[in-house]
Amino acid sequence: MKIWAHRGCSQRYPENTQLAFEKAMELENLEGIELDIQMTKDGEVVVIHDERVDRTTEGIGFVRDYSLVQLKRLHIYADLAPSQSILTMEEVFDLTEKTLRMGMKLNIELKTRNLLEKGIEEKIVEMVRRRGLQRQIVYSSFYALSLERILELEPQAEIGILDSRVSDCLFKAKGCGASALHPFWREMDLPRERIEGYTVRAWLSGHLYPEKPTGTKLNLKTLEEQGITDVFLNEPEIYL
Predict the structure, then answer these.
(1) Is-catalytic flag, 49?
(2) The whole model's pTM is what?
């Protein structure tokens, strides 16, 4: 089973922050880091999960209504560590590039379900290509047309289609050309033989910083028997 850090080490540190990513890069045998991208009002690609800034910062409103300068003024509380800020994707590449060249991967989820970030596919593909990191990147999205656009721009790109049920992932994959299925871990509603040949990266939800760790661990053997090959975990450090 391959282990990914979901939004970095996001159980013990604020998600999608430099701190969470740095802690993830310290882990041996980590397959990669998963993160989320959106675009600002002035066309900058930033790393944040929610469409709104309310949950993770002291700000209010949609990411798309902020300029990069305005977003950078917001703080992400990090307990005893210094407050974090919303990162640009360029900053993340600066932070992770050395580790990526050593074999780690990034799963970049495009938050494009509502077609609000027109042009984000072109921007992220150009960034990756300019740094020569194509083989270290997995692109994912719930929105199949966004992934279809990625493949038009970068035919050799690895893409993973997101949905809740693995059956819905499989249906969408056949339309957009995805080579990987990214279902919710509790929604494996197909027998293993139906998804053979696909990489199956299952995602989990809940228990993000500052919630306290649950102290429990998944039985990865059971998930593997269902055909899951990789898992996105908020607390990868307890599995590696």
Answers:
(1) yes
(2) 0.96
DSSP class of residue 212? P
What is the Cα–Cα distance from 166 to 110, expressed in whole angstroms? 19
Distances in Å between the Cα of 45 and the Cα atoms of 14, 24, 66, 86, 187 are 19, 22, 12, 11, 31
The phi, psi pair for 99, rounded to 5°, reads -70, -35
Distance CA 13, CA 177 (A): 35
Return the pLDDT at 97.
98
The encoded tokens of residue 30 equal 């980590």
Q: Check if 182 is active-site.
A: no
What is the residue whose two structure tokens read 């990147």?
137
Q: What is the pLDDT of residue 112?
A: 78
Pick from 33, 25, 23, 26: nearest CA to 2: 33
Q: What 8-state DSSP symbol labels residue 3?
A: E
Q: Name the residue among 152, 184, 145, 190 with its Cα closest to residue 170.
A: 190
Q: CA 178 to CA 141: how far, in whole Å? A: 10
> Left if phi > 0, otherwise alpha if psi is -120 to 50, otherwise beta: which for 115?
left
pLDDT tens profile 74-112: 999 999 899 999 999 999 999 999 999 999 999 999 997
Chunked into runs of 10 residues, the chain (240 residues) has average pLDDT values of 98 97 98 97 96 96 96 95 96 98 98 71 97 98 94 97 98 95 97 96 91 89 97 96
| DSSP assignment of 102-143 | TT-EEEEEE--TTS-STTHHHHHHHHHHHHT-GGGEEEEES-
